Amino acid sequence: MGQTTRATEYHEQALAIDREIGDRRGEGNQLCNLGICYAGLGQTIRAIEYYEQALAIQREIEDRRGEGICLGNLAEALVDEGRYGEAIQRALDSVEIGEEISSPNLGSFNNGCLALAHLCTGDLPAARAAAEAARQYDVPENNHYVLALLGVIALRQGAGAAAQEAFAAAVAQADALLAHTPQYYAALDSKGLALCGLALCEARNLVSEASAAFHAARAINRDAGIVSRVLRLFDALAAADTAGVLAGVRDAANGRMNE
Prior knowledge:
Layout: H1 4-21, H2 24-40, H3 44-60, H4 64-80, H5 84-101, H6 104-121, H7 124-135, H8 140-156, H9 160-178, H10 185-202, H11 207-220, H12 224-238, H13 249-254
């Protein structure tokens, strides 16, 4: 809901209790949750430190699910830091755990993270393969992101029909979530990105709709780390915008239209 500082305060309180009563699983979970909060706030180095502490505990107590979740979050933070090789390895490790324990969530989120890392290195075939793998898992919380990411990668490859299909599906998945939770900013960001992609694929004027989705997302959450991640994908998509169709939309994604 965009109240990251408040969430951080609650996780800190929970962490203190877990340590007081010797709940190692709870301690690992709260350290990972704090990493998520600090990554969202843009404090990536601090987030990585929390993830690494959590990872040590999860391995100590052999919590494979917690380890997989933490590895995926760590991989995304490493992407934020531009440490793509390390991010790819962490994501692969998490994908392996997901397969081992038959976890759709790990398969969706961490193949998606792997796709993002490959996209950032410019390895589009590897990025496409990972995004397609992520799509095989039906995880409503993450479908909108995976599909929007797949659309960006496909469009960058020149696969217009595949990109168009992925972007349309991303909008539908985002709308399904937003019907129940209108303040779900991650779905709004995916919808904005997908609408931008459809504007490029279909030559339709969807810029105002895309801007409105981004505007709504930034009204809920303008945390530095979240905005940076949104802009990273927008810029990856805009690289295919040779006609300048998306001019001005980046300001909406960045939150400048709210100022």
